[in-house]
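Much of our argument rests on the idea that a fold can be written as discrete symbols. The record that follows shows the chain in one-letter code together with its fold in token form.
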Amino acid sequence: MCREPSHTLDEDRRIICMNSHVSLLRGYRLALYAAIALLPAFALSSPTPPASAQFNRPVLLSETTTTRAVALDSVTRLREPFALASPVRLSADNRTRVMLFAMNLQLDAAGDYSGVTADAEDGAHRIYTLAVEHVGPVPGQEWMSSVVVKLNDELGDVGDVLVRVTYQGVASNRVRVGIGHVGGGLPDDSGAVPTPAPAAVVSPTPNTNPDTAGNLTTVEVQAVIAQAVSAAVALNRAVTVAVTDREGNVLGVFDMNGAAATTQIRGGGQPGRGLEGLSVPASLAAISKAGTASLFSTGGNAFTTRTAGFIIQEHFPPRVDFQPGGPLFGVQFSSLPCGDIKKPSLPLGLSADPGSSPLYKNGVAVGGVGIEGDGVYALDKDPADFDKPFEEQIAVAAARGFEPPSLIRGDNILVGGVRLAYLSVTDTDAPRPSTLPFAGLPGAVNSSYPIQGAQPSSFVPASVGGVSGAIDTRFFPFNGSASVSPNSLTTADVGRIIAQAAQQAEITRAAIRQPLGSQARVSIAVVDADGIVLGIFRTTDAPVFGFDVSVQKARTAAFFTNRNAATLLRGAGMGSYVDRANSDRLMLDGAVAFSDRAVGFLHRPFYPDGLNPNPAGPFSTEISEWSVFNTGLQLDLIKANLLAAIGGANVRCSTIPQLANGIQIFAGSIPLYKNGELVGSIAARPLRAVSRRFVAVPVVLGFAGRCLRDA
């Protein structure tokens, strides 16, 4: 976060170093590799150096296959090339500070780094001294040190320079850093080799929580799959069947003989734009369908992927012109495999493709079933045609004996007087053959997803402010911000904000839960100005998908309100969206405080929202190309890393560390201020906009910005 330049240069330097460490904290170390294509082997884990590293001297870390440094701007966290002048004015000299990473650079107990020096040599063999302003261990990776150096005043647009550090007279290897531009410069030193960080050796911590995510047993999972496959045989269809538990853990995937291995994404947009036309494994589509029904459904509402498709389109209801976008417009890009919050994630995010059903036992949500088999991963853009797709017929047959109470089905819930979609297939429409024995089903269990019962829950029961709910121990106890500012959110602040939100939810009527008069069920997240999660709390029976969405929303409000939002977006290749916002006099420079409602308003394919045939908002794609799989900035920001994650890469969704799980563009968050300084954001994720407003307002008391705008 950028601060007002009212402190001394020493304080500025301290903020630079401290902010750098904060960004590495709690998963932000992944910003070091920015994107999997850039740094595929920079995994921070084992303290054992690679064989090529020299043990008797400091070792500056490089990429896997070259001697190019792992280096970041210490303020913006952007990669090279580095300009001499910082894009964010934080210190009086406005010089760029570059953060390098080194092994074998442990200081004495006092942390004295006066013996550390640094220099750079350009292609003309000119040597530049680089002032060392900070050396210290990377939090959680103490075997590695971060080194912050200030660029020399005489450095211009020289291209590649060779940089080294020296500690107590012992020089490190030299690594390449682009100044002004990348390329040119001296050849590598004789004998120079890449010095990447050692490969990660991940030892997952087993979840020993005695509570499980629902209570589906192995036998029940087999029964659901057998009912699905038996129905598919009766319809002469070959499909992939997936079953998930209450929190999206995969309990089994069954591939029928002859089932298509892939399915193609089609949302009605132009092929090749966004994700349109992309082929993905059918198993992943089936899992996302089952997981969506699981994560959306609660004791007060039962939703399907058809419901999801009904509430994320450009108009609500779909195909009704001059109506605003759906109440969950944009939610499809949440719970993603590249996110850092929801574990387990859904491989394709939340799905809108009909062919799923939630699973209930004794009126309690326990999981979901998803069917993929028609070769198209899409959504129903014309719900009025009452089509009866075979995938949905099979899903209905699969869920027999596990149906939700009729009262809470999506088609018994109204939003703004509009009845939600649930299923186009009734129990009568679905085939009812004799169920084949599981061992004799035509096909096989997918070896990557063996049959199992409900898995240990990620959530532990807890009470905040006297309100019952649950927490994820990764984000509890609540924390204060580690950023250096007298106005930073304290642990007490975070606890008070979350408690106030939870207490307000307890006295707020839920808009789309049955029975009428039910309390709002919410996920509440607080982040600091750098997007670091300070606390998350779920009230009892809050929909699980809100756990990830609440953080996306909070980060969205904090990011777009920050002074360096435009700079970071340009650095991530999103400059065209910044230019379009600038043309509407939105400079994204901290002068305007954004809620995620405001960001979402700018993200509509009709601007203002729903007014055909107006052009798109500055963050959206024009309606001629727009689809739920091509939404504009929201998708473009994460597309490359999302595709890498779908392929199995361990990357965060965005190359901007403050947006590690992407942005969200439907309402529910506001930024937080103390003494006029942006210090973070609060988001609450109930199931209806009217509830979000009532929950959000009380928690901001004492933390309001002087220029808050809610579009």
Notes: The chain has 13 helices and 27 strands. Confidence is low (pLDDT under 50) at residues 1-55, 687-701, 706-711. The CA atoms of residues 296 and 543 lie 6 Å apart.
